[in-house]
């Protein structure tokens, strides 16, 4: 009986849909079938310059969608909401006049927790995590932000990397500097 499914030899492996072949390795004639994870392939696709004048929410929305990141516009339309793999939601906004991309995370705090403890946690974050700024804008909210400078433009892959680093920064700040009893 003839099968329409090609058989594989023991030395062959089936193609993996989550891996691409590295075209640069193929051009060199060496490891032409060396797998490249999608993130590296995506970095090549997103390695374009976002000009300073093109820094806006619609451009960022397209970039995040191209990177397969779950993203939506906020109800007021002034920022994008990214649902990160860790479950964290990051707010991202383009501040074209100041040539910045602002990223923020907001956490709810127990209203009955002592305000001195909340402020101490924010101060520990500010002292221990130089790349983040922590604030308590009201007794029930911990606000963390980070800004990416885009003066002269920014590489698309840099924006994606900055958002992923922000996720790690926030997780580290909360885990190391905020007692669980403060979080609602």
Molecular structure report:
The protein has a single domain (about 50-180), classed as Yope Regulator, Chain: A (2-Layer Sandwich). The protein has helices at about 25-30, 40-45, 55-65, 115-130, 155-175; strands at about 20, 35, 50, 70-75, 80-85, 90-95, 100-110, 135-140, 140-150, 155. A six-stranded antiparallel sheet has the order 4-5-6-7-9-8. It is elongated. It starts with 18 loop residues before the first strand and ends in a 7-residue tail after the last helix. The protein has about 180 residues and is α+β, with helices and mostly antiparallel strands.
Q: What attributes does this structure have?
A:
184 residues; alpha+beta; Yope Regulator, Chain: A; six-stranded antiparallel β-sheet; two-stranded antiparallel ribbon
- What's the CATH architecture name? 2-Layer Sandwich
Uncertain spans, ≥5 residues at pLDDT below 50?
1-38
By secondary-structure content and strand pairing, the structural class works out as: alpha+beta
Shape: elongated
Could you state the order of secondary-structure elements as H and E? EHEHEHEEEEHEEEH
* Strands, count: 10
Strand content: 25-35%
For this structure, the CATH topology is Yope Regulator, Chain: A
**N→C terminal distance:** 65 Å
What is the typical, i.e. mean, pLDDT? 81
Q: How many DSSP helices?
A: 5
The largest β sheet comes out as: 6 strands, antiparallel
- What is the helix fraction of residues, given as a range? 25-40%
Q: What assembly state would you assign to the polypeptide chains in this entry?
A: single chain
Query: Compute the gyration radius: what is it?
Result: 22 Å
